[in-house]
Amino acid sequence: MRATLKTIAEATGFSINTVSRVLRNDGRISQETSQIIRRKADELGYIPDAIASSMRNPRTRTIGVVSADLSNPFFSEVIRGIEERAQETGYQMLIGNTEEDAEREEHLIRLFLSRKVDGLIIMPSYGKDRRQLELYASLPVPFIFAGRYIEGLESHSVLHSDIEGEQSVFDYLLSRGHSHILYLSGPECISNTHDRDKGMMEAYESRSLIPDQKYIFHLPGHPEDGYQAVNSAINLSMEFTAVACFNDIVAMGVLKSLAENDLSVPHDIEVIGYDNLMFSQFMQPSLSTVDVPKHRLGYVAMELLEKHMDNPSMEYKTENLPARLLFRDSTAGERIRQS
Fold first, then answer.
1. What pLDDT, on the 0 to 100 scale, is given for residue 142?
2. CATH no. for 62-160+294-323
3. What is the DSSP secondary structure assignment for residue 320, as one 8-state letter?
């Protein structure tokens, strides 16, 4: 026989209303009472009736998460932060993956809306076309962009200081006297690339320098992209003494190519990644990189979404979390090593 709110109430001695409030994560119920009711609900095998609940309450306590690339550990960490906060406040998640495709992004958003989600967290492609702006402007639920933005809707974003992060990379390399830096930038369809390119330019401009465009490659952002780009540069006899990478995944391919071409890191070439993915400290050599607060990014995005779901008239404001340059063994100029 299926356990109900009534059977839990009878077994614990609390009212059906109290049981219901506890199982709806009502924070006004004491922790001691909540523990008793939850323990008994688990013992009885209670399963909430989501359909019945949604009929009684227009809010489903479900959110949609639109990820750009689930194979990238960066997004996995962001989603872990979203999930942690969602679990704390009793929200369920629907997750979809776009592979950086704008049409797939639109399809997932409409799919999640058909499932009656209360809000959306999105890692969007970078667009300026009217159709994309109209899509987001017409959304009937609150939404937050995690780690990215769309021009005209920057206030909906939680970002991670991409301009400052990349500027710190080039400030370091230029201060070390590198005059030929291979810059393996990201795909032009995302806002991170535009901001990091801007940070690179600001580092050059602050020194009244102009970067050589032939040393700048825009890549999809996978290991093979870094590997092939460095091989191409070497085959073209391009002289470079440093490589700045769009992410740690690209840097993985860079290190492989340099090793195969008998170039020592950091003695011959200094290499810096971006994102500080968990595996970057275990590369050979360990990778200097820009640390991005990935888990925190997701957690804050969910916190903000909750506020907007509770108060749809609340004004949106851009959040910008700090990033910092970490020095490990793939750079030679800074002897303080951090992991």
1. 97
2. 3.40.50.2300
3. E
